[in-house]
Design goal:
47% helix; 5-stranded mixed β-sheet; 2 domains; D-Maltodextrin-Binding Protein, domain 2; single chain; 6-stranded mixed β-sheet
């Protein structure tokens, strides 16, 4: 038995090194894209011939950049301007980028839209969302056979996604509170993985015993056969309004309408439409409005996530 200990120690050290390398790689990519893209956009923006967009980093940065590429090209043709995707390091940075007009449009979750609306005193508006986002859902997952309901999470280590995530934190937390479960008091440990895919990995690796994330990321992992062994969904929330494209009010109404119409025209009947819809995990797009997020705003205030 003593001969196995060095091997276990070595494996643990290699795992820590692998995780450090992965995190450094992600940070490097975000910094690289930010300097190359935003640096160029500052010069171009002086001529008013560029339109900048960003997205909350709810997935791996390289995956977000891959998904954004065809959409950026499509929007550029729609509005007749060069469109540039500006990556950010966290949810708060996405909010600040739009509020401070470092970008003209952002892909937000419902909660980050609410935060941006409050931070900008109503200077940003949601304009378009996927059909799926009017009935979005969150899921709780676990690899622990003793966890089969929300009440079973008491005394366990549980991970949310980002603190500012709608589907990975706000909405799951609101359901826990409705069940009389206070994460800070009732969980052994509360963790924040930072992204939905990272939550799945954390649960699968045993870092935590359960986690909450959006159902779209879970479905993608299932479809690609990437779900770690033993990890299952044990609770799914009712639907709610979530992700949307939010635009700054300073963007001319004509440009705004071109963008909306461009999204509405996307369909499976065209090559570009099929590619964008597939990458964005959308069956189509519909208009959205501020009133759709009143319920989330109330939930955020009840959960003491909005001051």
């Amino acid at each position: 038995m003593q001969l196995k200990k060095p091997k276990i120690i070595l494996i643990n050290k290699l795992e820590k090194l692998r995780m450090f390398s992965k995190r450094f790689h992600k940070l490097f990519l975000v910094i690289f894209f930010s300097f190359s893209v935003f640096g160029c956009s500052e010069q171009a923006n002086q001529k008013d011939d560029i339109f900048r967009i960003t997205a909350i980093p709810d997935e791996d940065p390289t995956e977000l950049a891959r998904k954004a590429k065809p959409l950026v090209q499509y929007l550029s043709k729609i509005i007749g301007k060069k469109v540039v995707y500006y990556p950010v390091t966290d949810y708060a940075s996405a909010v600040e980028a739009l509020v401070n007009k470092k970008v003209e449009m952002a892909w937000f979750g419902g909660f980050t839209y609410i935060q941006a609306k409050i931070r900008s005193n109503g200077a940003v508006i949601p304009i378009i969302q996927r059909i799926e986002d009017q009935g979005f859902k969150s899921v709780f997952i676990s690899s622990d056979s003793s966890i089969n309901s929300l009440s079973d999470l008491k005394g366990k280590e549980v991970s949310f996604g980002s603190v500012s995530s709608t589907s990975g934190h706000l909405w799951p937390r609101s359901f826990l509170l409705k069940e009389g479960i206070n994460p800070e008091k009732d969980f052994k440990r509360v963790a924040f993985s930072g992204a939905h895919d990272a939550t799945i990995i954390s649960v699968g690796s045993g870092k935590v015993q359960a986690g909450a994330l959006n159902f779209k990321t879970w479905e993608k992992f299932v479809k690609k056969d990437m779900v770690p062994d033993g990890v299952k969904v044990f609770f799914t929330t009712p639907g709610y309004y979530n992700y949307n494209w939010t635009i700054h009010k300073d963007v001319p109404k004509q440009t705004r309408e071109k963008i909306i119409e461009g999204f509405l025209e996307l369909s499976q009947d065209t090559q570009i439409g099929k590619e964008i819809l597939s990458l964005q995990q959308a069956s189509g797009y519909i208009r959205t409005k501020d009133e759709n997020y009143v319920g989330l705003e109330k939930a955020a205030k009840s959960a003491d996530l909005l001051k």
